[in-house]
Write a structure and sequence with these properties.
Elements lengths: L2 E8 L6 H9 L7 E5 L18 H12 L2 E6 L8 H9 L14 E7 L6 H13 L11 E3 L13 H22 L1
Parallel strand pairs: 1-2, 1-3, 3-4, 4-5
Bound molecules: ligand FNR.
């Protein structure tokens, strides 16, 4: 397809709500968009000493981001910020100095948690990091998803209650990516 999107899920948990949300959301996008979740679970802890000799998993991550026309982040919230595993991935792909692969890639940020504020603090921290990395990030609509019974149907799709909101979110995201890619 015309637009390849790298999806970054900020949780390693097998039954991650954020991964479920990612899997359901990408189905709402038009056919000219394709999505690939990048693997971050096998990245080493970032160590600047390894910049000259990056691990295969780091090279893979950077190649996948480079190949993408857009980015989609789904972050969990840990202690009112982004999980360390997500920051670790972002740091890896931002280095060595001058060789960041993030700059200029249009992005969207979402997150899900069972808490009432639905990852809003984590998303704000993530936006701060992305701004520094020169990633143009969709400002509105915001998507602070509180996970409740019935968010997903039996087969993992977004259920009717939330579908209109998230469909609108994806439509806005699609327009955002096209605007920056063209
Ligand atoms: C959490 N959780 C959490 N939730 C939240 O809304 N705000 C928070 O600050 C935190 N802090 C936090 C810290 C740590 C260390 C853990 C393990 C959990 C709960 C969190 O939202 C919940 O575990 C989600 O299910 C995590 O997302 P995934 O893994 O389901 O995608």
């Amino acid at each position: 397809s015309q637009y390849q999107i790298a999806v970054v899920v900020g949780s390693l948990r097998k039954d991650s709500f954020n991964r479920k949300l990612a899997n359901a959301m990408v189905k709402l996008a038009p056919p000219e968009f394709s999505f690939k979740q990048v693997q971050i679970s096998d990245l080493p802890l970032y160590n600047q000493d390894d910049d000259a000799n990056p691990a295969e998993s780091v090279k893979r991550l950077k190649a996948e981001i480079t190949a993408a026309q857009g980015l989609l982040f789904f972050t969990a919230e840990y202690n009112r910020s982004i999980p360390g595993v997500l920051k670790n991935a972002i740091d890896h792909a931002s280095r060595p100095y001058g060789q960041s692969v993030w700059a200029g890639k249009p992005a969207g940020v979402l997150g899900a948690s069972i808490g009432a504020i639905g990852t809003s603090m984590a998303q704000q921290h993530l936006r701060n990091v992305l701004a520094y990395l020169d990633v143009p990030t969709l400002g509105q609509p915001e998507a602070f998803i509180q996970v409740k019974d019935g968010l997903f149907d039996e087969v993992g799709n977004i259920s009717a209650d939330s579908k209109e909101f998230l469909q609108n979110w994806i439509n806005r995201y699609v327009a955002w990516v096209k605007k920056h890619a063209d």
